[in-house]
Structure formats: structure tokens, C-alpha cells
Design a protein that fits this description.
- This protein has a nine-stranded antiparallel beta sheet, with no helix packed on it. Strands 6, 11, 12, 14, 15, 17, 20 and 21 form an eight-stranded antiparallel beta sheet that branches. The chain has a five-stranded antiparallel beta sheet with strand order 1-2-3-4-5, with no helix packed on it.
- The protein has one domain: Beta-galactosidase, Chain A, domain 5.
- By secondary structure, the chain is mostly beta strands.
- The chain is globular, with a radius of gyration of 18 Å.
- Bound molecules: 6-O-phosphono-alpha-D-glucopyranose.
- 6-O-phosphono-alpha-D-glucopyranose (G6P) binds next to β20.
Length: about 300
Amino acid sequence: MIDHLKLTTKQPLSPSVQLMTDANQVEFISIAHPNAQACFTLHGAHLIHFQPTGKAPIIWLSKTAVFDNNKAIRGGVPICWPWFGAPAAELGNGLPSHGFARNTQWQLGDISEDESAVTISFKLVDTPATQALWPHSFELTLTATIGDSVQLSLTTKNTGNESLTYLAALHTYLNISAPEKTSVAGLGPTYVDSLDNKCMKNGAEKLSIAGPIDSLYIEPTDKVTLMDSGYDRELAIQSSGHDTIVTWTPWVEGARGMADMPDDGYQTMLCLEAAITGTAVEVAPGQTHILSTSIT
Ligand SMILES: O=P(O)(O)OC[C@H]1O[C@H](O)[C@H](O)[C@@H](O)[C@@H]1O
């Protein structure tokens, strides 16, 4: 799924982890472990590939995604933080949708590995540039465990002297065989339909994918299951620290409108996003809050 990026090794970092670059010297952290292949960009600490050994890829990446260390990457798991969607009005105009974490260069943290998995972390701390966008001191850590399954934990630490509040999403693009072969269970009874004036609606027990979807499921169950008869698999998505599972597919017109998604891209992806979209989480000085999701 990432062969087209033609990455070359720059530096081995551990037995299974390498720093790699593309033709434009954009940096990638590539993982080749006996149990899985995975890849992150330092731009956004963005997981762009995850494939357990012998199985179909679990994470979807747009074939036309742009890797320029500037634009947000289409596909993978963008980290939406410290807001989701449009920023709060009091922050001012011209701020990026879904926050700045996905558009910022992160630092590589610790790497450890054993026979079952690689654990790797990435860090982002406030700078004058982030303070200009969002006036808070913070340390944001993404810790990922890559093995038979993937777990992503996003820890927000308030390193300032005043409380901060945040919204977020681990905006997971899942690879599906085809929309008509895919359904989702466990999303919970009610959702806010962003495509219909944010109307509150009753959800079906099983969501079928037959058109554009942009829904906030505000009472998700502990385990959301993606059933895919084409890949003959069920993926269990278990999250914590969230209040919402966002379900999104742009469908035909939406995909056509995006330069960084092929016109038929919607046929092989579905976003199920562990998110905080309701009441912003308050983090007191010195305290932390964790948003996490795992896909098994
Ligand atoms: O195009 P992006 O800024 O990456 O956003 C992609 C999508 O993200 C979420 O799923 C939102 O609920 C959608 O409304 C949005 O279209």
C-alpha cells in the first residue's frame, strides 16, 4: 500500500524500525516486524500504513496523498487536535480545520520492541508558532504499539499554569474491500447527522454504507465492529477517553471534490474515528488526559 512512495533507508533505528525518506527527503518511520508492517510520517505523527503479516492492510492511504510536510495527509490516522472540525470562534479566523497537530512536525521519542510488537512514541510540545494559534503550554505524546493489532494512545499533558480544554480525533481511515460488503455494529443508538443540519437521529443496529455519511455517534458502545465480507474479517475497534465515534465517507461527489483522493477512493475506505466532539475535556495544570483506540 505504500510501495508507490519509493522510500529508501536513511538510518536503522532498531532491529525492526528504520528512518526512511522519499525522493523529496520527506522523513518516514518504517516498521517491518515479524508480526506487522507499518509506517508513520514525522509530519503529524501520522500512521499511514498498518498491515498485520499475512493479512490485508487495515489502514487506508489515498494513492494521491500529498507528502510535503505542510498539507494534512489524506488517509492513515490524522491526529485532529486540539480541536475537531472548525475551531472555536474565540480563537479567531483562518485557523486550520481539525487543529494544527496533523500539520506540524513531531519529534521521534522512544522505540522498544520484542517478539510480539514494536512500541514507538512521538512528541509535540508548544512553540511560539503553536502558541500563536492556541495559547497554551502542552506536551502531546502519541504512543503506538504495532503488532498483530495496532493501539494508538494520545496523551495530552498540560505543562502550563492554567487549565486547558481540548477536542480531538484519531481520524482512522480503515481499508475496506467494498462499501456493499461492509457494515458497522456497536455505534450506539443515536447520532448527529452532519449532512442533515446536525439533526439528532436514531441509528440502525448495523450501519450499511450506501451513500455519503458524516455522523457523530454520541453514545458509542465499548466495541465498534467493522464487518467486511470481501476480506472475510471483522475488525474490533475499542477506544477510551472519547465521547463520540465519527463515521465518515465522502462518497462519489465528495471524492471527486478532493484533489488528494482518487475519484474511486471512497470505494475502499471508511473512517471510524475515536473522537472528543461534545464537551471539551479540561486538563488542569500538570495533569494529563488520554484518548486511545485499538484495532484488532
Ligand atoms: O478533509 P478533512 O479536513 O481531512 O476532513 C475530513 C472529514 O473529517 C471528519 O470525518 C469530519 O466529520 C468530516 O466533516 C470531514 O469532511
